Amino acid sequence: MPVPQSNPIAATDAPATVDPLHRYLHFEKAYLAGELDPAFDRLSTWDLRMVVNGDEPDEVLAWGREMLRNYRPDHILDANDGWRYVGIVTSDVKYGSGDVKHDRPELQQYQNILMNGGVCGRRAFFGRFILRASGYRQSHAPAVVMPLWRTARPKAGSSTSVAAGELAGPVDRTTSEVEDVDRTATSWRLRKPAPTRNPT
Length: 200
Known about the structure:
The structure is a single chain. This protein has helices at 20-32, 45-52, 58-71, 87-92, 109-116, 121-133; strands at 161-163, 166-168, 181-183, 188-190. 31% of the residues lie in helices and 6% in strands. It has a two-stranded antiparallel ribbon. It has a two-stranded antiparallel sheet with strand order 3-4. The protein contains 6 helices and 4 strands, in the order ααααααββββ. The protein is globular and about 40 Å long. The chain is mainly alpha-helical.
């Protein structure tokens, strides 16, 4: 099923859906130019599905990478994997909906979000977008959850981590490396084992 493309309102002649061949060629070119996350070449087919499935036009993906490299390279180089790329949401995407009315029709929605901010959903959508643009897998989660994909604590001796209910980290990971995860309405947390009683 084709992915509907989210175009600027003023771009009335833009394609209605994302062209899968153009999307592949876009990411191939970005990969060969060294613009994507260093782990991009180790992503499985399943993980790649969560990189290329965005609704943004390819030129907006390129804009996102270029904007981050030029404007906030500190978020690309962040040593904290949990905030790499998406740190821009907290530093530059204003919280509040008062300026949403100033969204410009010639800009794509993610460009407008960076310019005018938003609450919950808009900020989360921008975080997911910047992960995709950077070649890092993202996943859909409730709108109030920021795409912090490496925030949970892996089991001792494991390099795997959890976010938004899915695994992140090395591609050769297995679910047995991760402690049990329990989904709540707005977040993911590690399930604590029930206390045991000593029947005496």
